[in-house]
């Protein structure tokens, strides 16, 4: 079972479209926070707060190089969320399969 606080942070981070946009941008490679903030219609401080949420969720890693802050995706950041989704999918798939079988048998009059 996955720890709730880990899931809460991951899904809370993913719930915001700006944070999803930042993650999608980082899929292209590491980037400076200033570069990530430039095209967004908000202040640098606002983007920085979003980055903080992504960091606390374990989705990005910050590296300070001189005066610049670089971000990169954390490869295992979504591991807990993925595990939880896999568990839920397995559970509900088994339930749907059982229902389908029951309806099939009922249709044949068994």
Keywords:
110 residues, alpha+beta, three-stranded antiparallel β-sheet, 5 helices, 3 strands, 13% strand, elongated
Describe the structure.
With about 110 residues, this protein is of the alpha+beta class. About 60% of the residues lie in helices and about 15% in strands. The chain is built from five helices and three strands; from the N terminus they run ααβααββα. It has helices at about 5-15, 15-25, 35, 45-55, 80-105, and strands at about 30, 60-65, 70-75. A three-stranded antiparallel sheet has the order 1-3-2. β2 (about 60-65) and β3 form a beta hairpin. α1 runs antiparallel to α4 (about 45-55). The two termini are about 40 Å apart.
Q: Measure the end-to-end span.
A: 38 Å
Which stretches are low in confidence, meaning pLDDT under 50 for 5 or more residues running?
none
Helix amount, in percent?
55-70%
What is the molecular shape? elongated
Please identify the structural class as seen in this structure.
alpha+beta
